[in-house]
Design goal:
Blueprint: H1 2-7, E1 9-10, E2 15-21, E3 25-36, E4 39-50, E5 53-61, H2 66-79
Antiparallel strand pairs: 1-3, 2-3, 3-4, 4-5
């Protein structure tokens, strides 16, 4: 998370959640409102480890489109295979 915040400037505190993704794997998920290169964005940043491999998945949308984009992001994470 720290590395991700070096490239984007968070404008709100991250909302952190424990979630299950891709085959019921436990993951940490962060929702952040941020700016990068002058563009406002809402970011869904997910971290998961499986079989000794660490994955970071970042998805973002314009804040005005985030409510309709988030279910798509979640479907991608749930359908993903981390092995």
């Amino acid at each position: 998370m720290k590395n991700a915040l070096e490239t984007i400037k968070a404008t709100t505190e991250p909302v952190v959640a424990d979630v299950k993704i891709g085959g019921n794997l436990p993951a940490k998920q962060y929702e952040i409102t941020a700016t990068t290169e002058g563009i406002k964005a809402k970011v869904l940043f997910t971290c998961v480890e499986n079989e000794g491999i660490f994955y970071q998945i970042m998805a973002w949308s314009l804040p005005s489109k985030y409510a309709e984009a988030k279910p798509v992001f979640e479907k991608i994470l749930n359908d993903a295979s981390f092995n």
